[in-house]
């Protein structure tokens, strides 16, 4: 990533954090008040108005609401409340709104929970509902994206301006074996992407099946599935990284190379060092999701009596880093500085 790209990403990250953070503040703040309201003192009340309201939504649909007005008394003072819950918004689910209004007919007795220091602040329903968890699940991908943006910036800041003899590939020495981690993608990053994707799919399914008014059990179960998928992928990736399955392993004792389980290799492939003729960087193109193309640079072993693609080691988007790694590997294997053509 260039410095200009990092600056742009920094400004975008600030904008994204402010936008998502403002929404988070409103959602979480309302839920905190909703939970605290369970400990509020109560007083009897009476419904004085109960009706369904409707208005045009921003996308052209109709949003319905329950207008519930209730009267109550605290310390001899009369009050009128209109809030059913703190996170109060319109809904496109007319049957749900109609059911709520029907449950609070005109003249019905209700229990009012009021804020002790401000009795005019009152609600009828306390605690968390399934819709609250669904709203938090909806925000999860946006929050994970924000965390990913900042993690990328921090990682760039820690490595910017530093030269690496391996082009940035981590090198670990384990006894007589040298492990080169050619797949430096963190298990946390992979798990975050999977969790965000699972949350996006889950909220679509949950919203379509319940009109965004799921039961608390359904919403809790959905959260468990989403988080479970992320944890499962993290443990899977962590196990692969710990086992070194995607590492290039140089074994000085047996004079062999163990190729990583990448590029379609289903198992580790052992190559005698004497069969390695050279290391070169091959350029390939890849079509992007937007229809364009990008260049990739693959350090590749040239072997006796073998197709070059069979010994492709990794794929880099940065040519300089790919060439740097190839030069390091040539030196490490005692090969000629320039690859044979």
Write the layout of secondary structure elements.
Layout: H1 3-36, E1 42-56, E2 62-74, E3 77-81, H2 94-102, E4 109-115, E5 118-123, H3 130-159, E6 171-174, E7 177-181, H4 187-210, H5 216-243, E8 247-251, E9 256-259, E10 269-272, E11 276-287, E12 293-303, H6 319-333
Antiparallel strand pairs: 1-2, 1-4, 2-3, 4-5, 6-7, 7-8, 8-9, 9-10, 11-12
Helix pairs in contact: 1-3, 3-4, 3-5, 4-5
Observed structural traits:
single chain; 341 residues; alpha+beta; 3 domains; five-stranded antiparallel sheet
Give an account of the 3D structure:
There is one protein chain. The chain has 341 residues and is of the alpha+beta class. It has three domains: 3-16 and 131-162 and 185-242, no CATH class; 41-125, no CATH class; 254-333, no CATH class. It has six helices and twelve strands. The strands form three sheets. The chain has a five-stranded antiparallel sheet with strand order 3-2-1-4-5. The longest helix is centred in the first third of the chain and has 34 residues, at 3-36. It is elongated and about 95 Å long.
Shape, per Cα inertia axes: elongated
Following the backbone from N to C, one meets helices and strands in this order, namely HEEEHEEHEEHHEEEEEH
Number of helices: 6
Low-confidence runs of at least 5 consecutive residues = none
Specify the structural class.
alpha+beta
Q: What is the beta-strand fraction?
A: 25-35%
Radius of gyration, whole Å: 30 Å
Strand order within the widest sheet?
3-2-1-4-5
């Amino acid at each position: 990533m260039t410095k200009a790209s990092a600056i742009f990403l920094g400004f975008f990250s600030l904008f994204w954090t402010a936008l998502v953070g403002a929404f988070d503040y409103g959602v979480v703040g309302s839920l905190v008040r909703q939970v605290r309201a369970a400990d509020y003192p109560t007083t009897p009340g009476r419904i004085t108005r109960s009706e369904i309201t409707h208005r045009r939504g921003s996308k052209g649909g109709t949003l319905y609401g329950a207008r519930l007005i209730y009267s109550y008394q605290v310390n001899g003072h009369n009050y009128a409340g209109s809030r059913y819950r703190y996170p109060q918004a319109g809904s496109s689910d007319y049957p749900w709104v109609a059911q709520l209004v029907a449950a609070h007919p005109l003249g019905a007795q209700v229990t009012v929970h009021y804020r002790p220091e401000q009795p005019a602040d009152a609600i009828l329903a306390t605690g968390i509902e399934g819709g609250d968890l669904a709203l938090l699940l909806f925000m999860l991908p946006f929050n994970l994206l924000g965390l990913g943006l900042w993690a990328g910036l921090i990682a760039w800041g820690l490595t910017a301006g530093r030269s690496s003899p391996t082009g940035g590939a981590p090198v670990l020495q384990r006894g007589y074996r040298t492990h080169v981690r050619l797949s430096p993608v963190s298990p946390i990053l992979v798990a975050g992407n999977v969790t965000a994707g699972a949350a996006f799919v889950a909220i679509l399914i949950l919203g379509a099946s319940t009109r965004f008014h799921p039961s608390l059990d359904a919403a809790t179960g959905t959260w468990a599935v989403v988080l479970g998928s992320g944890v499962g992928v993290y443990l899977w990736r962590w196990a692969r990284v710990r086992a070194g399955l995607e590492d290039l392993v140089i074994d000085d004792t047996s004079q062999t190379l163990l190729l990583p389980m990448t590029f379609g290799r289903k198992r580790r492939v052992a190559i005698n060092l004497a069969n390695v003729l050279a290391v070169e960087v091959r350029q390939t193109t890849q079509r992007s999701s937007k229809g364009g193309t990008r260049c990739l640079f693959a350090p590749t072993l040239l072997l006796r009596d073998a197709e070059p693609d069979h010994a492709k080691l990794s794929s880099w988007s940065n040519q300089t880093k790919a060439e740097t790694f190839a030069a390091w590997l040539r030196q490490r294997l005692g090969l000629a500085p320039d690859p044979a053509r």
